[in-house]
Design a protein that fits this description.
The chain is α+β, with helices and mostly antiparallel strands and 106 residues long. It has one domain. Helix content is 18%, strand content 38%. Strand 5 (64-67) and strand 6 form a beta hairpin. The radius of gyration is 13 Å and the shape is globular. The termini are far apart.
Length: 106
């Protein structure tokens, strides 16, 4: 199932597990909103900085979750994700925010 969502909230438990609570992505400059596809994605472990996804727009298909243009997790089933390595995650978050700032300046 496709995902085109905004991360409304990241829940990160003490044991490292948690969930990304998703909402439909608001319409962008093209006027087309996204459809979350799922209300929640769960994980068994996550990068330390996983809460940086709060408010970010993510997308993907049945095998991956993508932030900007970088895959941050693989999907296992409909609602479970496994994050990629910490460095890839950090790079994705940095690029995502850099690109958002650049488009806001236009």
């Amino acid at each position: 199932m496709s995902i085109d969502a905004r991360v409304q909230t990241v829940i990160h438990n003490e044991d490292g597990s948690g969930e990304l609570r998703l909402i439909d992505r608001p319409a962008g400059p093209d006027g087309v909103p996204g459809i979350a596809g799922q209300s929640c994605l769960t994980f068994a472990s996550a990068p330390h900085e996983v809460t940086a996804l709060n408010g970010c727009d993510v997308w993907g298909g049945d095998s991956s979750l993508i932030l900007g243009e970088i895959g941050i997790a693989r999907r296992e089933g409909y609602t479970r994700i496994v994050f990629r390595d910490d460095e890839t995650f950090k790079r994705a978050v940095t690029e995502y925010h850099k690109n958002r700032r650049a488009s806001a300046d236009i």
